[in-house]
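Thread: Newbie trying to understand structure tokens

Hi all, I'm a second-year student working on a class project, and my supervisor (Dr. K.) asked me to get a predicted structure for one chain before our next meeting. I've only ever worked with sequences, so writing a 3D structure as a token string is new to me. If someone could post the tokens and maybe explain what I'm looking at, I'd be very grateful. Here's the chain:
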Amino acid sequence: MLDWITNKSKSYPEFWKTYLSKFEEKPISKRFVVLTTESSGYNFSKDVIFSIGGVAVINDGILINDSFDIVLLQYKYLHENGLSNEFLIESKQLKMAEPQAIQSFIEYIGDAVLVGYKINYDIDMINFALEKMQCGRLKNEALDIEIMYQKWKENNEKSTEIEDIKNVIEFRENEKLSTSEDAYTLALFFLKLKKRLNIK
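---
Reply by user tm_fold:
Sure, no problem. This is what the structure looks like when written as tokens:
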């Protein structure tokens, strides 16, 4: 309760106030955003996000024209760690500095339900970036593909309708996909699980 009172009086950037206002009314239709990030590591207080990809799902369809794909310019991190920035230069994806990229992402997701593989990690990374921008934490509901799959397997031990998630994850780890292509692959898998688990 005290945290809510403190945050209510806090002076947030305008884009964050707009984001918060989207949760004041119930959405007309439920929009899911399948999210993927690429980062330098798994320590959100030390590592950085290199790219963010997302694609929207409404009802039983993937909306290709409602997608997000951006590279975050992390020159300082690369310079301090002696890493090459060649992949940033060669990338054809839209490029922005971290604050502008995070703001653009927040404006893109709105009040959508976020979906991803080990989604809490992605959310932690984004929340840490938001903290540096004097914003609050993401308010979106979240669904984890891994947990959804485990729940489906518990209910359907003998069914083979959905390929093993390990094959999907191994593909993601071994292939050099862009974050948006990665998000699309997960979106296809999400649609299968969404239908089997009767998620509306």
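A couple of things are worth pointing out once you decode it. The first helix runs from residue 2 to 8. Strands lie at 31-39, 49-58, 61-73, 94-97, 113-116, 142-144. Feel free to ask follow-ups in this thread.
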